Amino acid sequence: MKHFLLAFLIALAATVSSSAQTLQVDPIYIGGTATFEVQNGTPNKTAVICYSLNGSGPFTSSHGITLDLSLPINRLNPLALDALGNGTLGPFPLPASAVVGMQVWFQGVQIDALSNPVYTVTNMVPITVDAPPPPVDMVAIPGGTFEMGDHAGVGFTNERPIHSVTLDAFLMDKYEVSNTKFADFLNNSIVTVVGVSVYQVGGAGQRICFLSNGLTHNGSTFVIDAGKDHHPVVNVTWHGAALYSNYLSTLNGRTPCYDETTFACDFTADGFRLPTEAEWEYASRGGEHSPYYQYPWGSDSITSSDANYDQNIGTTVDVGSYAANGYGLYDMAGNVWEWCNDWYDGSYYSNSPSTNPTGPASGSYRVVRGGSWRSSATDLRCAYRAYNFPTYGTTYIGFRVVTVQ
Fold it and tell me: What is the pLDDT along the chain (405 residues), one digit of tens a residue?
């Protein structure tokens, strides 16, 4: 898996004598690189850190050094120790083959030509490559199996039959995408503004959004209406949400998921995309599967203190204004409807794949989920399914994105 974030802080306790040295490991997760710190070595001498992806030896080199590592053994650049016998090596990229869950074995060798023996070897320390922390403002949703659909018997025919779905783990935006984040995308993209409409340049030339209720254009820059920096972006089309996802992928060094002409989604890419309908419902439930509740906060009841909804003359509020669900996700009900990746089919549940379903191959509408500030309580249920034209933008539809871990 790409883009795991991992760093090692290694303290090598060495002495001037040939007594056994100790290699200690304290994992710190910083950026996909490894840093080694040598402490208490022989002043002004040299240390080398060796590693193997294949475990323990022993292996004796032509210099007579016996290492606990197995071939092939890799060595890093020599590390010069200072007058106190301390030094730092790194950061350096971890080997691409060291994927999450794999072990990497490290061992240190101090070189002192004036001592006998010249080479002093530390103990061998295995490290398990850990999963990265989620990107900023994203939470990890564990993989699992759930029963998708209306368990309360209060829904509509398109919410049935209840069916078992198994999903891989994924990362999901903690909040709905805000005006601040969407304005950054627009201001760093090549787009065309025609009246209050913003269009994609190149690709299919799709409409991205309408400029009202949060964003405006002053002739050179997209600006945010006063007080709405942290409101969810609205009036964004499905295509605009997909293009934002591609922008975010490029910004973070990931492979974009969407073809910007056909808007087909490559689910094997490691970039950002809109959640599938199954991912959205699974995440909205917050891990509450026994029993299955109607609402994301683990309850069959709803009040105005739970979500922003049922306001005919209302508006959006700052993302995160209400309590999170069990996965740490905010506003999975109310505030704005959220675009999903799937085409909509009212009978899809009857033939949905049981593992990682991605929706119908085509259609006229895209799925939206979660209800909005103007929706009734019924629409805010985890199982409720709605849809709209992908070219449509309105004051009550926004989105959030997902990506692989």
Answer: 333 222 332 333 333 333 345 555 444 434 456 677 777 777 888 888 888 988 888 999 888 889 999 999 988 888 888 898 777 777 666 666 777 777 888 888 888 888 888 888 877 877 777 666 678 899 999 999 999 999 999 999 999 999 999 999 999 999 999 999 999 999 999 999 999 999 999 999 999 999 999 999 999 999 999 999 999 999 999 999 999 999 999 998 899 999 999 999 999 999 999 999 999 999 999 999 999 999 999 999 999 999 999 998 889 999 999 999 999 999 999 999 999 999 999 999 999 999 999 999 999 999 999 999 999 999 999 999 999 999 999 999 999 999 998
HSE-CB of 226 using CA atoms within 13 angstroms: 0
Judge contact between 234 and 398, C-beta under 8 A. yes
Q: What domains, with CATH codes, occur in the chain?
A: 7-128 (2.60.40), 138-403 (3.90.1580.10)
Q: Considering only CA atoms, which of 307, 310, 338, 339 is closest in space to residue 320?
A: 307
